[in-house]
Design brief:
Strand order of the largest sheet: 2-3-1-4-5
Strand content: 15-25%
Radius of gyration: 15 Å
Distance between the termini: 13 Å
Number of strands: 5
CATH superfamily: P-loop containing nucleotide triphosphate hydrolases
Shape: globular
Structural class: alpha/beta
CATH topology: Rossmann fold
Largest sheet: 5 strands, parallel
CATH class: Alpha Beta
Order of helices and strands: EHEHHEHEHHE
Helix content: 40-55%
C-alpha cells in the first residue's frame, strides 16, 4: 500500500453487500492502521454501525438519510484522526463523491477506494444466508448488483485497490 509515508489517510469501501468489505476492514485494515497510528487515531464508521447506534437495528431501509448524516457527522468530527474508514456499498459515483467530500472536510486528502467486486451474485447471496445475525435479503443484494456502477479513474481517489 503506497500510503506508508503519509501522515493522514482515508478509505472508502465500494461494492455490493456480502463481498467481504467489513470483514476486510475488521480483520486486516483496522489492525494495520492501529499498528501504525495507535488505536485512538483510527476512526471506523459505516451505515450499519450508525444505524445500530441510532435505531438499535441494522434494517437497510431504516431512514438512510439520517444514518448517513450520522456517518458524515462522525467523519467531520474526526479532524484529529490519522486514519478514517467509511465502510459502505457506495454503489454509485454520487455516493462515493459524498464520502470523498466528507473525508476532505475532515482534512484527509489521500483517499483510497477499496473495491470489492470479485464475487458473483450467487456467492454473495449464499454468504448472506450463512451469516450469523443480520443477513441482507437476496432481493437487496440483487438490486446492489443491478445498480452498481464500476468505479472510474476520474472520481478523485488517490488509489484504487481491487479485491
Amino acid at each position: 500500500m503506497a500510503t506508508q509515508a503519509l501522515d493522514r489517510v482515508g478509505f472508502i469501501t465500494v461494492g455490493p453487500s456480502n463481498q467481504g468489505k467489513t470483514e476486510y476492514c475488521r480483520r486486516v485494515l483496522i489492525p494495520q492502521l492501529i499498528g501504525r497510528f495507535g488505536c485512538e487515531q483510527v476512526l471506523y464508521t459505516s451505515g450499519d454501525f450508525e444505524r445500530q447506534e441510532l435505531f438499535d437495528s441494522v434494517e437497510v431501509h431504516l431512514r438512510p438519510a439520517e444514518v448517513w448524516q450520522a456517518v458524515y457527522h462522525k467523519v467531520h468530527a474526526g479532524t484529529d484522526k490519522k486514519a478514517i474508514i467509511i465502510d459502505g456499498t457506495h454503489l454509485q459515483p454520487v455516493y462515493r463523491a459524498a464520502s470523498l467530500e466528507a473525508l476532505g472536510k475532515a482534512g484527509i486528502t489521500h483517499i483510497t477506494a477499496l473495491v470489492f467486486e470479485s464475487q458473483s451474485l450467487e456467492e454473495c447471496q449464499g454468504r448472506s444466508r450463512n451469516r450469523s445475525g443480520h443477513c441482507v435479503p437476496a432481493s437487496e443484494i440483487e438490486r446492489h448488483f443491478q445498480t452498481f456502477v464500476p468505479i472510474g479513474a476520474g472520481e478523485g481517489f488517490a488509489e484504487i485497490m481491487r479485491f
